[in-house]
Amino acid sequence: MINEKRIVSVTVNNEAFAVDIDEPMSIKELAFFLERNRSYISAMKKAGFEMPTNPIKRQCFASLAEAWAWLENNPDFTFNGSYRS
């Protein structure tokens, strides 16, 4: 089975980037492509977004596709870590 990449165009600050949405990204990279700050991603983690740690690099990683899916499945998530009622 050939592992096909899912490349999409993501626009950040009026600049387009070709991104493999299944590629593991760091908190900093996810924050960049979601156009949020790193604290926003950390709040997502505290609210249940899973970012496994790579023991060699000692960083957390998750794909852009996983982040989008989590945000879609958690529409009441807010930056302050609470959920809207």
| Count of alpha and pi helical runs | 3
Shape descriptor reads: globular
How much beta, percentage-wise? 15-25%
Head-to-tail CA distance between termini:
45 Å
Q: Which percent range fits the helix content?
A: 25-40%
Strand order of the biggest β-sheet:
1-2
Largest sheet descriptor: 2 strands, antiparallel
The tally of strands reads 4
| CA gyration radius, whole angstroms | 14 Å
What is the H-and-E element order? EEHHEEH
Structural class assignment: alpha+beta
Mean pLDDT over the full residue set: 88
> Low-confidence spans: pLDDT under 50, at least 5 residues?
none
Give an overview in words.
Helix 1 crosses helix 2 (38-46). This protein is α+β, with helices and mostly antiparallel strands and 85 residues long. The chain has helices spanning 27-34, 38-46, 64-73, and strands at 7-12, 15-20, 53-54, 59-60. It starts with 6 loop residues before the first strand and ends in a 12-residue tail after the last helix. 32% of the residues lie in helices and 19% in strands. It has a two-stranded antiparallel ribbon with strand order 1-2. The radius of gyration is 14 Å and the shape is globular. It has a domain at 19-73. The model has no long low-confidence stretch (mean pLDDT 88).
